[in-house]
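Worked example 2:
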Amino acid sequence: MKHIIFDCDGVLIDTEIVAAEVTVAWLNSEKVNISVEEFILQHTGKTYSNIINGLKAEGFLKASLKTDTIVHLLDDKVKARVRPILGVSDLLNSISVSKSVVSNSATSYVAQALNKIEAAHHFENRIFSAEMVAHAKPSPLVYELAVSTIGIPKEEIIVVEDSQTGVQAALAAGLKVLGFLGGSHIQPGHGEKLKQLGVFDVASSHEELAKKLALLANN
């Protein structure tokens, strides 16, 4: 292993639960009947634009709503509550190989989040966002962009993802994926779902993840 690609939300920063709470509160205000648990199961890993446009297409949201305006509103609320997942600083400090971030979130959001948790220097501006490609995860395009830019063979790269959407994207790009279960949004049985998709292993905390990545780096 010579390079690690991390997803951002739910792997480095503990925002998936925050994003679910914020978005569900807004959806409920728009008369969409959905719980935080249902949102996590149905939409974790998707972009706000895809969620909102999908609900418009299905008739749950008014077609007249401006998606971009809503996305900015939700983004701002989530940014204000960004926090690192426990142990992320020790994890990143323990890894000697180069690292990058691949996310469905906007580049500016990821950059701000990494700065807020004092982790930006670990990635040396290697941030790849779905806004850089035609389609977000589960499309493999953003992972393919990252691999071509990094210039390291796929066989020497490990991806760390928490969502089914992200795992599907990375696997479709031909990458090896380790599932992360340490975010506060993770539901019972999620690890088995990721294994069924094709992750080669899972880690329940950053401490466990650090040990497994260390073993991979030394083999």
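The chain is about 45% helix and 10% strand. The radius of gyration is 17 Å.
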